[in-house]
Amino acid sequence: MNYRRVILALSCTFFIGCSSLEKKSNYSEANLTKKETIKEHTHLKEKSYLTLNADKKSEYESESIKSEIVTKKEINGTKFIEVYDPLEPLNRRIYYFNYYLDKYVLIPAVNTYEFIAPKIVQKGVSNFFSNLQEINTFINSILQLEGKKATITLVRFGINSTIGILGLFDVASALELPKTYEDFGLTLAKYGVGNGPYLVLPGFGPSNLRDTAGKAVGIASISEINPYDQPVGFDVNNIGVTTMGAINTRKENQNFRYYGTGSPFEYEYVRYFYTKYRDTLIDVNDVNGRGE
Question: What is the pTM of this model?
């Protein structure tokens, strides 16, 4: 009887232990499953976050590329031809005025002159006004402390004004004395004066504030010196000489026609190329000055 009770007690203990182990095992499995689920969810969340960041980065890079393309388009478009032009509305009106002045006055005058005057006369007139320009080149070479250029220019003017008969014949070039060019605008540039605002001058065309001042000084210098008045009584300020000078100047630049390019950006292009042309003259003069 006692053995039966012992066996029964052991059996109950065994079954209770097994039941407890099974519950513990089930709890462990459930706990493990829960941990794996949390880990997987965290992984998915991290993956989603990384994907989102990647998308944002891609979007940011895309915007950077777009910005770079826009910048390049601006450089390759019309941005590069921009010049300081605060008086553009007025300048455009003067440009338009010059078109009509050119069309109905200057070009017809040039055509008539070329029709009437023989080539040798046209060449002589061109040489005459070119020789007058030597006065400005000489003065501005002195102002720029370019002694060699000033000396050669003075000799050229002397030879052409005497042997060349008031400059009608360019004897100095035949003697291999090189012709150079200077004006007061280039002198101002050498001493650090900037271009200033772009200007379109009635009759004269493209310029800027510095070069306009230089042009005025140049005209006044030749007018005041009037080099042939005392020796031979020839007045360079005579209205006929002044008119002939305007016709000759237009003749030497007659390849250019206002609104002749057919481009809607002609004004901008003329403004840009004039500015680059003057900058080139300044650079060339700086190089020649350093070479002396």
Answer: 0.71
